[in-house]
Amino acid sequence: GAVVSQHPSWVICKSGTSVKIECRSLDFQATTMFWYRQFPKQSLMLMATSNEGSKATYEQGVEKDKFLINHASLTLSTLTVTSAHPEDSSFYICSARDLVRGRAATYNEQFFGPGTRLTVL
Amino acid sequence: GENVEQHPSTLSVQEGDSAVIKCTYSDSASNYFPWYKQELGKGPQLIIDIRSNVGEKKDQRIAVTLNKTAKHFSLHITETQPEDSAVYFCAAIYWGKLQFGAGTQVVVTP
Q1: Cβ–Cβ gap A46/B45 under 8 Å
Q2: Nearest to B42 among A42, A110, A114 (CB)
Q3: How many A-B residue pairs are in contact by the CB < 8 A criterion?
Q4: How far apart are CA B81 and CA B35, in angstroms?
Q5: What is the pLDDT of residues B90-106, one digit of tens each?
Q6: Is B100 at the interface with chain A, CB within 8 A?
Q7: Tally of CB atoms within 10 A around B87
Q8: Tell me, what's the pLDDT at A53?
Q9: How far, in Å, CA of A39 to CA of A91, rounded?
Q10: Dmax (CA) of chain B
Q11: For A100-115, what is each residue's pLDDT tens digit?
């Protein structure tokens, strides 16, 4: 149980194009999903928090107009990298909080997806 | 905000030996401390977690200890095996968000 998938697993695009990455919770509903970026040999950095039916909350320094997040349902969040440039090349990872179990104030577990490798040429 | 420091950055151990990774956190409000294992090209996998009302937790060869007073927590892996080789991240929850340590590259040599 508690499986999170991402699609695509890798993508190569040309500079200036937009790329959409999907994050799905397969066997649970997720009220909250998180998007992280990880550069080679570095840690995970939180980009934004995505809540179903509301606007995403972005971390300081993350351009919300460049990284568009849509959390249209309790099982799907999407991250669109607009006008991608080579410096956007990175490993993008999403995670999700279980809606039901997350109702407990002490519940904090996040389930991570397998990641999406984005390469911008 | 929360700041998590993790040491060492790399750890090489002989198969069968123990590995210990240490983390410190800055905000006493943090109350949940997970550990993740990340293999190359994959997403992080939760291996064990501990909450602030517990001092120690064990799951087979893996254990985590938490010292709330000192604000540090540690991961212990006993009887290491080659498949334990990976990058390990500690994290602390802060206002519902995970703050990760820098990671430890563990290499288990046969």
Answers
A1: no
A2: A114
A3: 51
A4: 18
A5: 999 988 899 999 999 99
A6: yes
A7: 19
A8: 84
A9: 6
A10: 42
A11: 766 655 567 889 999 9
A109/B34 Cβ within 8 A: yes
Tokens coding A49: 């928090």
pLDDT reported for residue B94: 87
Nearest to A77 by CA among A32, A119, A111: A32
CA pair distance A43, A10, nearest whole angstrom: 19
Q: Please give the structure tokens belonging to residue A114.
A: 């397998």
Looking from the CA of A90 toward its CB, the CA atoms found within 13 Å total 18
Do the Cβ atoms of A115 and B42 come within 8 Å? yes
Residues 6+ apart with CB under 8 A from A39: A90, A91
Nearest to A4, CA basis, from A92, A68, A93, A72: A93
pLDDT tens figures, A71-111: 989 999 999 999 999 999 999 999 998 877 666 555 678 89
